[in-house]
Write a structure and sequence with these properties.
This protein is mainly beta. Helices cover about 5% and strands about 55% of the residues. The longest helix is centred in the middle third of the chain and has 10 residues.
Length: about 425
């Protein structure tokens, strides 16, 4: 479970072999997980795996410093550490799966620490992280950047790294690490793991047969802190459901007042508070009413996420793009768009869109609009952000591919669902200009 190669030593990936040793680790890990002797412990301070309240748990410490894990009710656990050399602890499932993970709680580290959905697969042997928050050591250091994916109201950077002759769940081995690191850290929410698995796969980063999967607190290299995390699967925060209506892609002009009303509902009828990230400069959201308003101050395309929350911690969000043109008018130049369905199966598909600049001036920041002729719905995207209102879809650039030089091109991919038709769109506009 250590990060890329700059980490000083291996961490919790060795705990299975430490407990049960050698090449039998995979087979025995499942047996260990159901042994009643460890399953009933409320406070755990030594290396072990087990089950509690219907959840799998795992605890590993390298032995230095002080750290313990307390198992609470349901999927709750808490940790407290001080001067720890290396530990990882969490609650989840064995085996893992492409499930929707919900969680809430607190994460208060001082020093190097991660909060992640963490797991392993075999055939191929892969260690993977979906990291929502981190402190100290950047988990992407030394790894290879592969792209981005937009999921669960945020953007995650994707990385791949290889570990050579390092401890693993099958003993010392060479294997790959897959990372997805959220660019706007958070503690609590929904993690749709299948979106990340599919995004990795689109870059040739394939998973194998799932071993365990936990919502893990991890800390190393000294430091101190605490966490208190409650894990669930397939539901929302608490028993309430908050639904936010996506307003669709927005446009505006620098110097001209703009506004959009966000509409949301709570299944229990509770009052909602609103927050937003990624708003264009000059705009803000009213936390009580959900009205976004103001006067745009700069041109560009922003990916906006609006979140509505109630007092129980239940929340919902919607993500859309907001393109602001300069007061003299924006432009994208001449363009050509190629849409390719890269994979299709019953009820699902992946597609790639290549945007070429056939003009004589660079395109700086782009928003691509098109209409699906079928009943497709985009569920996740990489190398850009995607939003959709009805049949109308919008793709916007990532931070690293917004500029397309004359004669150059860039590509964005996405995954989606369909029921009766997956027909490809035939017309596209880039920054308001029709493409061939």
């Amino acid at each position: 479970m250590n990060g890329p190669p700059a980490h000083p030593k291996s961490r919790s990936r060795g705990h299975i072999s430490l407990l049960i040793g050698g090449a039998c680790a995979v087979a025995l890990a499942v047996v260990t997980a159901i042994l009643p002797g460890s399953a009933r412990a409320a406070t755990i301070c030594s290396n072990q795996t087990g089950s509690s309240n219907g959840y799998f748990y795992s605890f590993y410490t390298a032995g230095s410093g002080s750290v313990c894990m307390n198992l609470g009710s349901g999927g709750n656990y808490s940790t407290s550490w001080s001067g720890v050399g290396d530990f990882v602890a969490g609650v989840g499932w064995n085996p893992g799966a492409a499930r929707t993970v919900t969680y809430s709680g607190t994460f208060n580290p001082s020093g190097d620490a991660y909060l992640s959905v963490y797991g392993w697969t075999t055939n191929p042997l892969v260690e993977y992280y979906i990291t929502d928050d981190w402190s100290g050591y950047n988990p992407s250091s030394g790894a290879t950047f592969k792209g981005t994916v937009t999921s669960d109201g945020g953007t995650y950077n994707l990385y791949e790294d290889q570990r050579v002759n390092q401890p693993s769940i099958i003993g010392t081995a060479t294997f790959n690490q897959y990372w997805a690191v959220r660019t706007s850290p958070r503690v609590g929410g929904t993690i749709t793991t299948g979106n990340f698995f599919n995004a990795w796969a689109s870059h040739g980063m394939n998973l194998g047969t799932f071993n365990y999967q936990i919502l893990a607190t991890e800390a190393f290299n000294g430091g101190s802190g605490n966490s208190n995390i409650t894990v669930g699967s397939g539901g929302g925060g608490g028993s309430n459901t908050v639904t936010v209506t996506n307003p669709g892609s927005q446009t505006g002009t620098v110097g001209t007042a703009a506004s959009v009303q966000i509409h949301a509902s709570d299944s229990a009828g509770q009052a909602l508070s609103y927050s937003a990230t990624g708003l264009p400069a000059g705009l803000s959201v009213n936390s009580s009413t959900g009205l976004i308003s103001g006067t745009p101050a700069a041109a560009g395309t922003s990916t906006v996420t609006v979140t509505a929350s109630d007092s129980t911690g239940a929340s919902g969000s919607a993500t859309f793009t907001w393109t602001i043109a300069s007061s003299g008018g924006g432009g994208g130049g001449t363009c050509h768009v190629a849409y390719t369905t890269t994979s299709q199966w019953t009820g699902g598909f992946t597609a790639n869109v290549t945007i070429s600049n056939t003009g004589t001036s660079a395109i700086s920041g782009w928003t691509l609009n098109f209409t699906f002729p079928g009943d497709q719905h985009i569920t996740s995207a990489w190398n850009g952000a995607a939003s959709q209102s009805g049949e109308n879809a919008t793709l916007t650039n990532a931070s690293y591919n917004g500029t397309i030089a004359p004669g150059g091109n860039t590509s964005v991919g996405f995954q989606g669902t369909w029921t009766s038709s997956d027909a490809a769109p035939s017309s596209f506009t880039l920054n308001g200009t029709a493409c061939t």
